[in-house]
Specification:
This protein is of the alpha/beta class. The chain is built from three helices and eleven strands. The protein is globular, with a radius of gyration of 16 Å.
């Protein structure tokens, strides 16, 4: 059984990481259930283990170096951040498959709103075709501790996309970012959360 938690308001990033680490240890000890945690953060940048200093263009918002995989990304209001804490062995033990499952979960969720999300070879995250090019609508960054996954994914509902100008998102310069709102989809965070819950069981 998976526990779902939704935290209202804008959650401090350090507090989120601390809570995830506490829950990871408790899941490992068998004290609590695997967890999907839905949050929003105030505007900030995070750098993953592959982040390049030159990809941080403007220090407009607080910058956090984190142990998740990936490069620089942005979090902020209007973006649903989904922290997934699962026992990787129960999920098959294969981190590549687990990332594929996260991607599939996002793709199925986007489809509920008439958006076609796609994978791209060599590019982590989920992409959509728009304006004659393709743009990222969801980012993925994962860490595993003691066999338990944490960190997770971020889906753009209606964030201020201009905030991405402070970084090279995920180290990819040639493609931009988009959101539900940018694609003309007027949905609420609650709409997205409900869809994430509906599609979860199709993948995990």
């Amino acid at each position: 059984m998976t526990e779902w938690i939704t935290t209202p308001g804008y959650l401090n990033y350090d507090a989120a990481v601390s809570e995830m680490e506490t829950r990871v240890a408790a899941i490992r000890a068998g004290e609590i259930a695997e967890t999907v945690w839905l949050v929003e953060h105030p505007p900030l940048f995070t750098g993953g283990t592959s982040a390049k200093p030159e990809d941080l263009l403007t220090v407009r918002f607080p910058v956090y170096q984190t142990g998740r995989g990936g490069q620089y990304t942005y979090h902020g209001p209007g973006q649903r951040v989904v922290y997934v804490m699962k026992d990787l062995q129960k999920a098959g033990g294969d981190i590549r498959r687990y990332v594929w499952q996260l991607e599939e979960w996002i793709i199925l969720t986007l489809a509920e709103f008439g958006i076609t999300g796609e994978r791209r070879e060599g590019r982590i995250g989920i992409w959509v075709a728009c304006d004659g090019t393709e743009k990222k609508i969801a980012a993925i960054g994962v860490r595993v501790r003691s066999g338990i996954t944490y960190h997770g994914l971020a889906i753009n509902v209606n964030p201020d996309l201009s905030h991405y100008a402070g970084i090279v998102p995920c180290g990819i310069e040639e493609f931009g970012v988009t959101s539900f709102a940018d694609l003309g989809k007027d949905i609420t965070m609650a709409d997205l959360d409900a869809a994430l819950k509906r599609t979860w069981g199709q993948v995990f």
